[in-house]
Design goal:
With 160 residues, the protein is mostly helical. Helix content is 51%, strand content 4%. Helix 1 packs antiparallel against helix 5 and helix 2 packs antiparallel against helix 6.
């Protein structure tokens, strides 16, 4: 397990999100601040098997996607999931406020770690990257979270 990335997922996210406000504008993309936080929580919920989304890519693409996962490359600006996974527009807001969304994200991160503690060796399905282990999820969550934090200028740009 990459302990630095894991530590970031458990604490660094929330330090960075302290500066995110309801009216924060993204550098790219169409998600608003609260939509982005809810989106991150959703994918932590996918990783802990609370949300199930079927595989949305051909299986023969999985080796290429896993290679990206283990690389030092980051998601590019405006990277979009397949429309069959997220649709063309952000989901409607589901929490009462950005603050509640941040609290829900914190709970989803805790649930992710508790799930893999309760089920050591478990593997869960990501709709684009396929079946992932805890270590693979940590890599993916780190790339995904830092991508969205850069989107809202909460982290400096990372060099590929």
């Amino acid at each position: 397990m990459d302990q630095n990335k894991s530590d970031f997922l458990q604490t660094g996210i929330f330090l960075a999100l302290q500066d995110l406000q309801e009216n924060s504008m993204p550098a790219w993309g169409i998600m608003g601040a609260q939509e982005m936080v809810e989106h991150l929580a959703d994918f932590f919920d996918v990783s802990s098997a609370k949300i199930h989304i079927p595989l949305a890519v051909p299986e023969d693409h999985l080796p290429k996607y896993k290679a990206f996962l283990f690389s030092d490359k980051q998601f590019r600006e405006n990277t979009k999931a397949p429309a069959s996974v997220l649709g063309e527009m952000p989901l409607p807001l589901r929490t009462a406020s950005l603050q509640v969304a941040k609290e829900n994200l914190q709970q989803s991160v805790r649930d992710f770690y508790q799930y893999f503690q309760q089920y050591p060796g478990a593997q869960t399905l990501h709709p684009v990257f396929g079946v992932l282990t805890l270590d693979e999820w940590i890599l993916l969550h780190y790339k995904h979270v830092t991508h969205h934090l850069r989107q809202f200028r909460l982290l400096p740009a990372l060099v590929d």
